[in-house]
Amino acid sequence: MVEPLRKRTFSANNESLLTGMYVVESSNAKDLVIPHLPVIDKASINNGLWSSGVTSGDVVYYNQSTNRMRTILTSNSNENTLLVTEQCENRCLFCSQPPNERDDIELYKNATLALLNFNAESVIGITGGEPTTNKKAFLTLLHQLDYFNNKTKLHILSHGRNLSDINFVEDIQKCIGSREISWGIPLYGHKSSLHNRLVNAQKAFDETLQGIVNLSAFGQVVEARIVPVTHNIHHLINIINFLVNSFQNIKQISIMNLEPIGWAKKNYLELFVPVGKQNVYLNEVINICLAYGVSIQLYNYPLCLLNDNLRAFSVRSISDWKNYYPSGCNQCARQQVCGGFFTSSTGKYLEDVEPFQ
Amino acid sequence: MQTAEFVTLPFFFRHLDNRNSYILTNQAGAFTFLENANVLKNVIHGNWSSLSSNTLDELLAKNFISEANEFDARKILIGSRFASVLKNNITEPSLFIVIPTLRCHHDCHYCQVSRVPINKKGFDLSRSNITHILGIIGSTKSSSIKIEFQGGEPLLSKEFIQNFVQESKRRLSEKEVSFVICTSLTDINDSFLSWAKVNDITFSVSLDGHEMLHNLNRPSSLFNTYKIATRNIQTLFDSIGKDSVSCLTTITKDSFSYVDEIIKTYIDMGLNSIFLRPLSPFGFSYLKMDSLSYTAYEYFEFYKHALDKIIALNENLYFVEETALIHLNKIFRPFHSGYVDLRSPAGYALGALVFNYDGNIFGSDEARMLYRITHNEELVIGKIGADESFFNHETTHKLLSDSFISCTPGCDDCAYQPYCGADPLHHLSTQGDHVGNKANSFFCKLETLIYDHLFDLYNNDTRTREVFDKWLSR
């Protein structure tokens, strides 16, 4: 296992803490105390055992049996994301977080508490599983945030299928209030036979399209996400054409290079397209997005493997706690501006880099 | 690939003479090209096995056909896009045109507003109207608006303009307001320029070409109009900055022979765009139609030639032709249609309101031009300070109902309908009704030729496509 840029989990032996969620308080990050809302149990600790990387105001989870602490939301991270469920209707061939059908309603509850107590100014990602599978829990989360007058901006990663229910979207709209919300919705094909095959579910294509249109009716903005794999890389231009010609609320398209974890790791050989072979397809679609005025971003692509003209569209997208630079990157002149690799990209899952002089 | 059953979705098609190919478009604004009539027939008759998988995927990607099981979802996509474009065009006005005076020191043959000489009395908007006009503007919902002073020559009424701007800062503080003065720049002075700079005023100036052509098109018995215009454009550049001036070119029959000179004038002035426009059938150019006018084909030949030269120039510099860019925006940015003359329903009263020197309110600049020569009272939809219910005026309703081009004859089956608009005043002026017979319409002919040409260039010429993409991402 390689070292990520930031450790999310670390040892933190503390006898005065029970298992549960805490907010870090005080500037030297020694004490964990109860926040001001009546939603987290009162507790405090006082020690400096645990390692750096946590700041006052951060939300952490302490596990008494393992003596380990995990940051849930931290102002030190480039991206904060909350997992609210592991349940999902889709079965994507490259799912990085394979679904689990057990009752995990406490995840919604913890996410709500974390959001309320962190009170971020930056955008917080809501992810799963599928955050809207349990419609009621999802609405409750939004409603509670609103009730406690929390203004956190949310980016919700959803397959969009449940949004095909216009009443549900209307209910969401009522809970949103003045909150800024954006949606990240994946579309892997320009036709049902392709998309449904990749997400391994019937009806998914139709429901996702209807979901995006329903969001549009309420003025909600969508970031469309595409994961290029063997099955759809030669249709990338068709997928982009479909997006820019079918919707009006897709303001951004993100093309996301495969993360070799979960089912993507299991199906890696069948799915994976080396970046060198993706370049020609990526080239084709950049100009379409420019012409149609839709911004396009390339996620999870090491700069050196992209064609020169594509590098401007690459963003440092990998969350720091699963991000690293392999030893080949040590001499690279552009490491500071490159997104690097997932910590799961090792061995046969790691592409050879070509460091910049 | 699993074999799927396909269904056609509604689309328009048009033969492109140049390459003997076909363009397909749909109500969602998508377009594609088919190489010949056989391919088109195969699509229409559903001979899917005769079509290449590339063609099928392109048609699927752009919602021209559907896999059988997903038909309902795609139907909703097209319907929702179409509805949104309509809805986006049903707005409250965001362009307000104020005519402080109809007086002007130019004697242009083509004057579309039928100006009067500078000493003539009774052609100025009195200052007492400012409060009423700002009241109307303030009551509309648009939060970002443009106020344009036109004439005559608005700079003959500097004091009116300065009062108006000052007053609007107070009365329209809730709105984001930009001010434009449409002027020949004949009459400017230092104190006015420093006032304009402080108040972020921009200027729209007529520049028809080199000295000989400009003076021919825009004569004055008082002075050399070219020399004054170019000198004062330079003065504006130096004192306020390059962004404060945009120029537009009215193309006459005389202009046809001077493509190079027109473009060179703009480049030499250091301008980075040119707006080539045909004469409109209003004002003097309406009255002298026979001697001044040309056919859409004649104009288009000139335009095509000019556009070719401008595209070639873009190898080395950034220089936009605005008419082309307006049309490209209609194709690629259907949801931000800023241009009021290519909308469906028309931008009449929904996009613009005109406050005339005589106190009359019109729904478009063309309407006041036509009123000037016809005195047809039906064109007047309100009076400043007296009757301000222009949205409910019968003329507004009639005219707008006639301007939904998805259901007007000649437009309802046109492949360029998704990108085009209605021009009811043009047709009223030339044919006597809002819709007109499109077979005899200069407007329709010219729009069709322009779209044919732009699509042809975009699809077949990589260099041009790169230039267009560069313009679009401005």
Task: Explain how this protein is built.
The complex is a heterodimer of chains A (357) and B (474). Chain A is an alpha/beta fold and 357 residues long. Chain A has 9 helices and 16 strands. Chain A has an 8-stranded parallel β-sheet with strand order 7-8-9-10-11-12-13-14, covered by helices on one side. Chain A has a 6-stranded antiparallel β-sheet with strand order 1-6-5-2-3-4, covered by helices on one side. In chain A, strands 15-16 form a two-stranded antiparallel sheet. In chain A, helix 1 (105-118) packs parallel to helix 2 and helix 6 runs parallel beside helix 9. Chain A is globular, with a radius of gyration of 21 Å. In chain B, helix 6 links the parallel strand 8 (176-183) and strand 9. The longest helix of chain B has 19 residues, at 71-89. Chain B is α/β, with parallel strands linked by helices. Chain B contains 18 helices and 16 strands. Chain B is globular.
Q: How helix-rich are the residues of chain A, as a percent range?
A: 25-40%
Q: Which blocks of ≥5 consecutive residues of chain A have pLDDT under 50?
A: 27-49
Overall mean pLDDT score of chain A? 88
| Total number of strands of chain A | 16
Brief synopsis:
The complex is a heterodimer of chains A (357) and B (474). Chain A has helices at 105-118, 135-147, 166-176, 192-199, 204-217, 236-246, 263-266, 268-271, 275-292; strands at 9-11, 20-25, 31-33, 45-46, 59-63, 68-73, 80-83, 124-127, 154-157, 181-186, 221-226, 250-256, 295-299, 314-315, 323-324, 341-342.
